[in-house]
Structures are given as C-alpha cells and as structure tokens.
Amino acid sequence: MIVSYKNNRLVPAVIVAACITFVYYLIDPSVENYGSPLPDWRSQNPQAAKTTAPWGTKPTSTLPAWTEPPPIPKQTEPSIKPTPIIEPNPTSSDSLSPSDILLIMKTGSTSLYKRLLIHLSTTLSPQNIPPENTVIYSDNNQTIGSFRIIDILANISTQTKSLPDFDIYHQQPLYDSNNVYVEAAGVDGDNYGPAGGWIIDKYKFMPLMQHAGTNYPKAKWYIYMEDDTYLFLDNVLRYLNGFDWRQSHYLGSFAGKSDVVFAHGGAGFALSRGAWEKTFGKKEDLPGEYEKYTSEHCCGDQVLGYALRESGVKFGENNGDGKFTWGFNPIVHWRFGFSRWNWCVPLLSWHKVHNRDVARYFELERKWKGKQMRHKDFFEEMIASDLKKRQEWWDNLSELFSVSSGNKENPPVPESSHDLGLWKKGWESVEACERACEGWENCVQWSYVEDLCKMDDKLIMGQGYAPAMSERKTALKRTSGWLKERLDKWSC
Ligand SMILES: *[C@@H]1O[C@H](CO)[C@@H](O)[C@H](O)[C@H]1NC(C)=O
Ligand SMILES: *[C@@H]1O[C@H](CO)[C@@H](O)[C@H](O)[C@H]1NC(C)=O
Ligand SMILES: CC(=O)N[C@H]1CO[C@H](CO)[C@@H](O)[C@@H]1O
Q: Which InterPro entries match (predicted)?
C-alpha cells in the first residue's frame, strides 16, 4: 500500500524534473542567454555545476542560483588592488568621469521595445552620462527621440550575410514594411517577430568594437553592456580607476569556452583604449577576419575574447592573467548568492534584469551617488526589508546541502561545525529543517518541501507564488526561512 502510494507520487515528479532539465539545457542556452555563454562559468565552480531539480512548474525561471567563483586566496591576491573598498579621493583630478568613457549599449530589433526603452530614461539619460559618451548598436537603423540606433551589421560581408544565420536580419525589416509591430505589448497588431534574434547577435561584437574605437577615439575606456544588463556606472568607473587606460586591459566577469578565457558579455565588461589600439586600431578589417570563426562558434563575447587574445590582449586584472575578483555579475540580484566572500566588495553589474529592476536600481544609485555601493549595501537596501524568519510558498533557492528521507542515514554534511543529530532529522518537518540549519554554524537559509530540506551558506532571494497564482493549486507548498541574525558575522 504505502510503497505504491509513494511510487505514484514519485512518477510525475521524476517526469517533471526530467522535462524541466531537458528544457533548461536545450532551450535556455540559446534563447535566454542571447549570445552569452552562461553555462560555462558553471564548470569553473563545482558547486554551481550542480543543477538541482527546480520546483514548481515554471521551466523558464528555473536556472540554478549563481554562486560565484571561489575567492582568490590571499597569497595570489593581485598586486594592483582593482576593487578599492576604501573610498578613493573623490577630488583627485585623474579619477574617471562619464565623459572619459564610451558606454556601449547592444540591443536587437526583437528585444529593443521590450528591454531598451527603460535604459533611455535611466542608464543612457543625460542625468547619468553625456549623450555623446553613449552609443547604441543593433541590427537595424532606428531613431527614438534623441537616440540614434546603429545597424552594426551593415558592413558584414555579403558572403557572411548570405548564411542562414542572417535570415532574421533580412526578415526583420519586412515586419515593419507590413505594418506588424514587434513589441510584445499585447496591443492589437502586435507580434513577437521572427524567432532567434540571438543568432545574429554574436556577429555584432567585433564590428561594434571596431566602430566604437574608430568613431570615439578619445574614450579612455569602452564599456560594454546589453539591454538586459544594469551597470552601476559610478562603481565601474571607480573600479577602472585602478587601471591605466593607456595599457592593455580587458576586464569583466570571467567566462571560459572553446579554450578561450573572456569577459562575459551580459555581465558587462571594459576594454581600455590601450587594448583597442593594440588590436582593432592596428587592423581596420579585424572584424572581417573573424566572420567565419564567428559563424562556427556560439557566442560573440567568446569571439571577441579570442580575437583579442590573438592580437596580444588577454582577459584579467593582472596583465591578462585570466583572474577577476568580484563585481561584474552575469546573473540578476534575486538569483545571486550573497555570501561572506562578496559581501564587502563593490557591486558593478547585474544581468538578466527586467525593466522594473532597472528603474529600481537607478533610484538606488541616485540615492548612493558619490558613495561606493557594496553587495552588502545593495542587499540591505533592496532585499533585507522584506525578510521574514519564515515564508510559505517561497523558494529561497537554497541548494548547497539537501537532506531527505532518501539520504537520511548518510546525508552530505558540511565541513564546518554542525549538529549531526539535527542534520539527519532535517527532512522530517519545516521545524526540523529550520533546526538543522540553526545547528550548522554557516547556515543562513533553508527551504523545505515534502521531505526535502535544503540548506545554504549563501543568501539567495528567490521567488514566491503570489496568492492568485495557479501554482498554489498545482505545486506543493515550499517554505523558506532565513537566519537574519547570522549576518552580523559578515561585517565588513
Ligand atoms: C542601415 O544603414 C546603413 C547605412 O546607411 C545601410 O548600409 C544598412 O543597410 C542599413 N540597415 C538596414 C537593416 O536597413
Ligand atoms: C561601414 O563602412 C562605412 C565605410 O567605411 C563606414 O563609414 C561606416 O561607419 C561603417 N558602418 C558600420 C556600422 O560599421
Ligand atoms: C535573501 C533571502 O533569503 N530572501 C528570502 C528568503 O525567504 C524569505 C521567506 O522565508 C523571504 O522573505 C526572503 O526575502
């Protein structure tokens, strides 16, 4: 009786988990990542490499939470301190200002009306940066108010443009000419547009760097972002202040793929004028030389990293050593694992942001103007106020340790101090899970569903199901909880 009852409940769960994993691996890297190799940083971090079976029925939002690379051990710490935690002298005459840089925004015809518009009144507004220090690259020419959007694929060779990859480039203008809107606004006459804007996205990276350096030769830094990135510009400039723009520097969030170490595009990155001159500056047709390579590889940010390396510019904070510390984040704040390793370092970016996020981040930045914002500050301003000791119908995305009835005899245990008795009982109830977490010295959050207790030493905001959402009728209730008092130990 009992056995078959359990089996009945397991079968759908296993099928759902398998389907979601399948969807995640096959669809997400191409659609969601929009040309950026999200899966690869995971291979850098064995913990993050684990994909956990997501809960609920929302396959599009089931990426595992991002845990960052392990901190650089003391002895290998960079000799140049690129992320000053102490306030640099704000009156210092050589500190960078927005008028010293070019802020490059990359968008695409199919995402422009969904993601770019919010940036025009925030990130790219004159309040944030002089208009002449910004440029917007897309796959079509367009004007929105005072913003001119450039088709950066215009000069791609006819040979490359005849590849099937470019079908969308040729099809897109036909939507306009047939008076079909590609805005996904749910208004009459609307349409989602041709599928796969991300396919031509990778071809933009090389030409846009060439175009930026040629047309904005006075910029000390070329700072790249995408329409679903948010850059904390003040902090980014402060960070770049630690480097000489006349030298070669290629800085951002570490990513690796096809034997190339490169800056993750979605997280935002910076290329110094010195690096540009050594590479694009020496060869006007550098982009042309990499069109074939681009067609054979997945991601434009990887192509750029490869091309730069071949011309002698490598990624990394210490003369291209492949290392980076913290700050450029290829993930959004509510999936990010706040930990004691990143708590006190400056925040430089979020990726996969929504319009609402951009508006809120921008407000927060105005409030902080002139002060360095650390991950801790962001957390306290944007997340902490909603914290409860316990919340039903909420998933904190805890994932580090799982204790369930299936592994109760021999569950994985942390190296740090924990109460093994409480730990092994964690699967029994919400209360038991909370106690197991309390019994482990580094635990800051837990989640519980059915007979599964998950615990983590990082803070991940996660998501809940609002009372009106149908998932409350179709999914099992998951409860999450959070040990707020333990944060005091993370003081900076
Ligand atoms: C954008 O303008 C350039 C230069 O005028 C032109 O070569 C290119 O074909 C245009 N792009 C599209 C998609 O019409
Ligand atoms: C295309 O090439 C022309 C001629 O060299 C140049 O003026 C223009 O800026 C280029 N456009 C792009 C988008 O690179
Ligand atoms: C960072 C964090 O832990 N966030 C959420 C965890 O879950 C609680 C509910 O238990 C939420 O209120 C927090 O926002």
A: C1GALT1/C1GALT1_chp1, Fringe-like_glycosylTrfase
Residue nearest to atom 9 of ligand 1 (CA): 154
Question: Nearest bound ligand to CA 148?
Answer: 1
Amino acid identity, position 218: K
Gap between the Cα atoms of 184 and 393, Å rounded: 29
Q: Which ligand 1 atom is at minimum distance from the Cα of 139? A: 13
Strand residue runs (E) in 303-428: 349-351, 390-392, 394-395, 401-404
Rounded-to-5 percentages of helix, strand, coil across the chain: 40, 15, 45
Model confidence pLDDT, tens digit, residues 100-152: 999 999 999 999 999 999 999 999 999 999 999 999 999 999 999 999 999 99
pTM of the full structure: 0.81
Q: Please give the span between the terminal C-alpha atoms of the chain, in angstroms, as a whole number.
A: 56
Atom of ligand 1 minimally distant from the CA of 155 = 7
188 residue type, one letter = D
174 lines ligand 1 (CB under 6 A): no
* Residue 455: its H or E element: strand 452-456
With vertex at residue 108, the alpha carbon angle to CA 28 and CA 210, rounded to the nearest 5 degrees, is 110
pLDDT tens across 301-334, in order?
999 999 999 999 999 998 788 888 889 999 999 9
CA angle 74–77–82, rounded 5-degree value: 135
137-191 residue pLDDT tens:
999 999 999 999 999 999 999 999 999 999 999 999 999 999 999 988 888 888 8
Quick one: tokens of 183?
């805005």
Going along the chain from its start, the domains and CATH numbers come out as 1-386 (no CATH), 388-489 (3.50.4)
